[in-house]
């Protein structure tokens, strides 16, 4: 049997709790915000979290050949996923 590191289990538990709580939080927030405002708020929170992480552990830049794919996936993830008229 594989033994799990306590930090790994803690990270998995935090991820599951935060992810599971997102659905009721979104339902509550839609009463106060429009879907576009809520998406913007989610991006701002994610940007702040990633910015803090990047300040602590600076990331390595992607390989030049990967940049077009990253841009395509970014476009699809933002413009298509969050655009109800695009579906």
Please sum up the structure shown.
The chain contains 3 helices and no strands.
Q: Report the strand count.
A: 0
N→C terminal distance = 45 Å
Shape: extended
Helix content: 55-70%
Taking all residues together, what is the mean pLDDT? 87
Largest sheet: none
Give the low-confidence spans.
none
Rg for CA atoms: 17 Å
Helical run tally: 3
Order of helices and strands: HHH
Which structural class best describes the helix and strand composition? mainly alpha
In terms of DSSP E residues, the strand content is under 5%
Task: Please provide a written account of the structure.
By secondary structure, the protein is an all-alpha fold. 69% of the residues lie in helices and 0% in strands. The protein is built from three helices and no strands. The longest helix has 24 residues. The protein is extended. The termini are far apart. The model has no long low-confidence stretch (mean pLDDT 87).
Tell me the layout of helices and strands.
Elements: H1 6-29, H2 35-56, H3 67-80
Sum up the structure in keywords.
mainly alpha; 69% helix
């Amino acid at each position: 049997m594989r033994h799990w590191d306590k930090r790994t289990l803690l990270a998995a538990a935090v991820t599951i709790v935060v992810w599971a709580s997102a659905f009721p939080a979104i339902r509550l927030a839609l009463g106060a915000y429009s879907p576009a405002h809520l998406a913007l708020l989610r991006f701002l929170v994610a940007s702040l979290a990633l910015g803090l992480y990047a300040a602590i552990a600076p990331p390595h830049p992607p390989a030049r050949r990967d940049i077009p794919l990253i841009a395509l996936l970014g476009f699809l993830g933002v413009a298509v996923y969050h655009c109800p008229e695009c579906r």
